[in-house]
Amino acid sequence: MFLIFASQHNDNPMNYFSSDFKLGILGGGQLGKMLLSETRKFDIQTYVLDPSPEAPGRIACNYFEQGDLMDFETVYQFGKKVNLLTIEIENVNLDALQKLEDEGLPVYPSPSTLKMIQNKGEQKDFYVHQGIPTASHERFTHIEALKSALKNEVLEFPLIWKSARFGYDGNGVKVLRSMDDFIGLPQGECIAEEMIPFKMELAVIVARNVSGEIKTYPVVEMEFHPEANQVEYVICPARIPENIAQKARETALQVSQAFNHVGLLAVEMFLTNEDDILINEVAPRPHNSGHYSIEAGYTSQFENHIRAILNLPLGNTESKVAGIMVNLVGEEGFSGPVVYENIENILAIDGVTPHIYGKKETRPFRKMGHVTIVNEDLSKARKIAEEVKNTIRVVSR
Amino acid sequence: MFLIFASQHNDNPMNYFSSDFKLGILGGGQLGKMLLSETRKFDIQTYVLDPSPEAPGRIACNYFEQGDLMDFETVYQFGKKVNLLTIEIENVNLDALQKLEDEGLPVYPSPSTLKMIQNKGEQKDFYVHQGIPTASHERFTHIEALKSALKNEVLEFPLIWKSARFGYDGNGVKVLRSMDDFIGLPQGECIAEEMIPFKMELAVIVARNVSGEIKTYPVVEMEFHPEANQVEYVICPARIPENIAQKARETALQVSQAFNHVGLLAVEMFLTNEDDILINEVAPRPHNSGHYSIEAGYTSQFENHIRAILNLPLGNTESKVAGIMVNLVGEEGFSGPVVYENIENILAIDGVTPHIYGKKETRPFRKMGHVTIVNEDLSKARKIAEEVKNTIRVVSR
């Protein structure tokens, strides 16, 4: 009787709002910055650790600490200051996270998931063991072993080389067509992946909270520049038939559940010429492919990440309107204090919202911000996105 | 020739983004806090002045100063630190603002507009002179003069007494039906307004930038509690015929243009039983009646305030979906550290977004936050809003 009585009076199990509860975020880049927009909305106290004194996420947190995310002691001591820890970047000291979790601190995503995802070989093995469709692969502890396999005709060109660790934004991935393509590649652990022709790259973000409530965002499509082989537009919803969208969302759900993942999981996939879905890789955090949701979605990916790790009910992942995202990257030939040329021209277009990350210096191809274009009509949004891309320029003074 | 050449090369006239430009905001309450969400998005440097060391707008600005907004020297010295000054509250030292403007600092809204709006007698006179429809009124320098007018039958009960200065959220307004109703009223300058029966209270927010570009937000409706005579829901769009909505928006445009206003102007109005629009009063800043636009609008009122004062093109003021706002006020009988009881229950409903302002202590009727409900169907949103209102409770531990 007493226990029931006590439980009835425990009516604030989730008192995160304007309270003493402290959420720690490892990393204060643009993803951290956009997470902080949601923690401010809910008035949740946040502590941010980032190596840069000019990190975009320095402002709008309650406490900022400059420190090395790969240093055990720095991450461990930071973790001791907070009630729950999350990440906005995968490359953090996992031993510290593991020790914090062992000592009882909730850490989402879990260090064991992060460890598996950090190594692309392990990640691929995991998909195979779980029966999740993915291109076939071979693991090599050293690049020389891959060379030998090709020389001995155990493997054949062409194939895709991927560094097992620390790949980022297309770094650490290369198509190999002959021995000459090995020039300049790093020596370390890698995988060789079968090259499967595909007609589209898709992504689905899955939100899953501590209790296991799970929702998928709509399928987005990465549209590539016809020549430069660079993603130009992230388009939501993807221009694919409903049955394929359904299959993509189901496959993404399967991946999140297989990882027993808590928080957001961005699942990147290929749609093959035969309309099969193959998992490419995942990111266990808010992701570039979900930025459109700030303006287009009922609940932004950032809000749902916060809801998921705090075990709050997830928000509606569907969209109010169509959304397209264009990355703002530093133009070639410009390095120095950034200027967003013609930003006033794109602001004059209905449904256009620039996000400026707050990096003071531009460099060629550095991600400086993004622009979201929303419209009730996806094809109109697509036209406007092209206009935006052709108008704004990230240059230096 | 040289001048034309120079002008062609001045291609960054509006370099506010990740630059040294500093925007000053007088006041760091919830309106300031929500403005900062937009300045972070655009990475515009902000300086905030507020008397409270725990102001909601303390976090997410670049520089916070604690100080008295009514003190000449404090406001003047703060203004010298910034490149452009705006307000989130009307009650600030106007002499300091005037001196800053005279010395060349852009101040929006202008001190002269603020001065007129601060005095309800002057504000009402202005409407009369401008031919803007409003209930008829008489001005009195002292409450005794109003009493005499009633005793001498120059005026008749019932009428509406309004304090000329510092009215706020229903304070400073009272219906007088007999001499007994004078008990407890302050002595100072006031107006007596004709009591005109009306069927609805409406509001329209107008955004106008420095160049004179002007846009109105959709008409919102204030729905009152049937007994308590307190606004319960702000509903967008108002449930009125299109021709009346059109008339309300046109009247609001007329008011903004009459003031030559820069920034947001929230225009509160009555819809009479004869379907006439009468201006009640205005607020020269973001306003409670526009909070719904964060989730429902293409451009939130806060973003458009920033755009307007920086002379950027205005964003689309129309809505993606219907929106309803419910204020979160402290429950009677509770004072102390705040707890948002059952917030997890309302988060479980699709399209529901709580905004927690970050005030640590609740008091009866203190504005602690608001909740926005969005839905494609306004009547569904209205039902959910009622559920939200009946579920969440702002109490103390």
Automatic annotation (TrEMBL), chains A, B:
Cellular component aspect of the GO annotation: cytosol
Gene3D superfamilies: 3.40.50.20, ATP-grasp fold, A domain, ATP-grasp fold, B domain
Key word Lyase present: yes
Any one GO MF annotation of this record: metal ion binding
SUPFAM superfamilies for this protein: Glutathione synthetase ATP-binding domain-like (SSF56059), PreATP-grasp domain (SSF52440), Rudiment single hybrid motif (SSF51246)
Domain ATP-grasp: 124-310
Superkingdom, taxonomy of origin: Bacteria
Keyword Ligase annotated: yes
Sequence similarity: Belongs to the PurK/PurT family.
Subunit and interaction comment: Homodimer.
Name of the protein in its database record: N5-carboxyaminoimidazole ribonucleotide synthase
